[in-house]
Amino acid sequence: MDYGKLIWRDASGDIQTWKLRAGLNTIGASELNDVVLSGAGVEDTHVEIRCKQGVCQLQAIGTVELNHSELRAGETAQLHYNDRIRIDATVLRYTYSDEERVPPKPLPQAVLPEKWEEGIWATPPEVAGKIWRGDRGASNTWDIILQPSGSFVELSHMPSEYLQYLPPLYHQGANDLVNNLLLAFEMILKPIEHMIDQIDGYFNPWVAPEAMLPWLASWVAMVIDPELPRERQRELIARAAELYRARGTRLGLREYLRIYTGAEPTIIEPGDPGSDSPPLAPNCFHVILEVPETAPEEERLLDPAKQAEARERRRQALEARLRRLIEAEKPAHTRYYLTLALVPSQPHASSA
């Protein structure tokens, strides 16, 4: 299956491409990545792109700009045709593998780039504002006015792929009215055709767009907490049937809490051997959770007492959500105790 490709210019200005494959694709400064970038702001592994069932999902490990919108560490987004990913000073463009969209460097002479991409490089002053034409045969011309910013105004286009469905009479020349009309439809319909080819990905909770998740959750009668990280929301929806089968059991509650919090809970029932908890009454159980968390950046500037107050407020808010979850998942005749603690998450070791 074709998952498309990434196109960018390396530090020396040469064009590089990487054809995305099924599974995990990584981008970063380390030589172990599929795409290796240089720059002071590039992490060892800066971005992960997971491709599955025709859809590619980007997850930010370091700060990334996707189409001029910032993605912070842990945030995800689905890639679409013509998306631009900025990592430090490098811009990567996502496109289909059967297209060649990146031109050579612009030259201060009447040589038109194969195609021009806005925002990847600037136009030399001596070519800005002029009309340039690349002539590669009678049916293959491309006229544009280059702007100083690197953007362009298109005057004519490559031949439309839809011309092949018309009689030969309409194939002569690339600048005629019919071709330009077909190109207008092609620009609108081609992304839609690509989306239809990948329609199954919209119904797969692992790769569906984020806006689809509440709708998919409604299919399985599940109300998703919007404060949960997206990956946990996806896992809850994907495993809804499995969780329903185990509902009301220790196993089902433990798995639900593990997905929800990212921590492994301990659930103690009456008669459990080796338990240090006080004896429990019949039909009563004890849930113990230690949830790792990273304090917000602005909170680290506070004095220790205020940090403790803020941590306790977060603990109480999480406890209230967990109690609602446990009430919904436990057998109706049972009672429970909940012990919840927030523990600082261990920072990832970074290479020197």
Structural account:
Helix content is 23%, strand content 24%. The protein is elongated and about 90 Å long. The strands form 4 sheets. The protein has a 6-stranded antiparallel sheet with strand order 2-1-11-10-7-8, with no helix packed on it. Strands 4-3-5-6-9 form a 5-stranded mixed sheet, with no helix packed on it. Strands 12-13-14 form a 3-stranded antiparallel sheet, with no helix packed on it. The protein is built from 6 helices and 17 strands. The protein has helices at residues 177-197, 213-219, 230-238, 240-245, 250-261, 304-329; strands spanning 5-9, 15-19, 23-28, 35-36, 47-52, 55-60, 64-66, 69-71, 76-78, 84-87, 90-95, 131-135, 141-146, 152-154, 266-268, 284-293, 335-344. With 352 residues, the protein is of the alpha+beta class. The model is unreliable at 99-157 and 348-352 (pLDDT under 50).
List the topology elements:
Blueprint: E1 5-9, E2 15-19, E3 23-28, E4 35-36, E5 47-52, E6 55-60, E7 64-66, E8 69-71, E9 76-78, E10 84-87, E11 90-95, E12 131-135, E13 141-146, E14 152-154, H1 177-197, H2 213-219, H3 230-238, H4 240-245, H5 250-261, E15 266-268, E16 284-293, H6 304-329, E17 335-344
Parallel strand pairs: 3-4, 16-17
Antiparallel strand pairs: 1-2, 1-11, 3-5, 5-6, 6-9, 7-8, 7-10, 10-11, 12-13, 13-14, 15-16
Helix pairs in contact: 3-5
Whole-number total of structural domains: 3
Number of helices: 6
Topology order in helix (H) and strand (E) letters:
EEEEEEEEEEEEEEHHHHHEEHE
Beta percentage is 15-25%
Key features?
Tumour Suppressor Smad4; alpha+beta; 352 residues; 23% helix; 5-stranded mixed β-sheet; 3 domains
